[in-house]
Amino acid sequence: MSVADTSVRLPAEWRDFLALTKPRVMTLVVFTGMCGLLAAPASVDPVIGFTAILCIALGAGAAGALNQWYEADIDAAMKRTAARPLPAGRMDRQSALHFGVGVAAFSVILMGLAVNAVAAAILAVSILFYVLIYTVWLKRRTPQNIVIGGAAGAFPPLIGWAAATGQVALLPFLLFCTVFLWTPPHFWALALFVETDYANAGVPMLPVVAGERTTRNQIGLYTVPMAVAAIAPWPLGLTGAVYGWSALVLTAVFGVLAAQVAFRHTHANDAMVPEKRLFRFSLLYLALIFAAVVIDRWIA
Ligand code: HEM
Ligand SMILES: CC(C)=CCC/C(C)=C/CC/C(C)=C/COP(=O)(O)OP(=O)(O)O
Domain limits of the chain? Predict the structure, then answer.
């Protein structure tokens, strides 16, 4: 390292274990879990709260590692994922498996012992859902993989809420529904501009199997119930106007961007600008919706 380079560098092996956890995607997953916890009507001991969020992060990371352990063959066939530690040959599958199983078990046990059994049970279900239902069962079999398997990524708000209160309730359930229904537009927008990659790997993602027109229609279709789930907490009296107006404005923008994608007719070699815009906004949308639930709770 040169004198001028002050950046902190992890050893290469640690960096590969970190890459196994899909840290960028999981940041938003963990954020939704944290917001579930902070929006709950309970005062949580800061140490317990921090432990709960740590357990969600560890559980989600472990699930990501087990996903990469199982699908090293698919990852090797796609440009986007070929440099991951397993397909690139920097790590053996056994190490990834041990890491994934060990960290997953640790996260659930710690959640059960330090937080509560309900949060631990939902965390265990979400890890199993992502690894077994999505990765092992559905991903290679059906273009509905995202719709059903996507539920795994929707559990964290319920886990966070359960960590704070020991139970689940209608508001975190609606947040679950919002993420669940958000996942298809989020992912299919991306799949429209990395379509050839999935085709190369033989993964039956919707654009590969059913074509671009159907994918665009489905993006539009899922946006409608997503909007209902996202806005519903306000008229149901579960949140106040701060959340309500935020959800209305954000969802209106999401709706416009989704409509631009849904109603678009493209020709060969057209740039996928609206699709990229929808994908990028989908990330901001979810982050802001969850931030709004917490802010609404705090100022209420
Ligand atoms: C089955 C459901 C889902 C699928 C198949 C999916 C797929 C993807 C893919 C392929 C990417 C591209 C880049 C990458 O691999 O890093 C991506 C990006 C991303 N996804 Fe999803 N996603 C799903 C659900 C979710 C959920 C539930 C969240 C969070 C709550 C999420 C958050 C993100 C974020 C933050 C990125 C951007 C990562 C970056 O900047 O590199 N995704 N998603
Ligand atoms: C708390 C807990 C256990 C949460 C689970 C988190 C979860 C299900 C996240 C889903 C997001 C995700 C990493 C999708 C990647 O899909 P992919 O695996 O098909 O993407 P790839 O092509 O990049 O491998």
Answer: 11-167, 169-300
Ligand with minimal distance to 140 CA: 2
pLDDT in tens, 160-193: 999 999 999 999 999 999 999 999 999 999 999 8
User: Would you say the pTM of this structure is higher than 0.90?
Assistant: yes
Q: How far is the CA of 177 from the centre of ligand 1 (A)?
A: 17
Q: How confident is the model at residue 211 (pLDDT cuts 50, 70, 90)?
A: very high
Residues 6 or more apart from 135 whose CB is under 8 A from it? 66, 67, 70, 71, 149
11-167 falls under which CATH superfamily? UbiA prenyltransferase (1.10.357.140)
The string of DSSP letters for 203-217 reads ---HHHHT-HHHHHH
- What span, in angstroms and rounded, lies between the C-alpha atoms of 203 and 106? 31
* CA 298 to each of CA 40, 86, 200, 208, 270: distance values in angstroms, whole numbers, following the listed order: 10, 44, 48, 45, 46
3-state DSSP call for residue 247? helix
| 169-300: CATH architecture | Up-down Bundle (1.20)
Closest residue CA from atom 40 of ligand 1 = 24
Q: Judge contact between 21 and 29, C-beta under 8 A.
A: no
Residue 124 Cβ contacting ligand 2 at under 6 Å: no
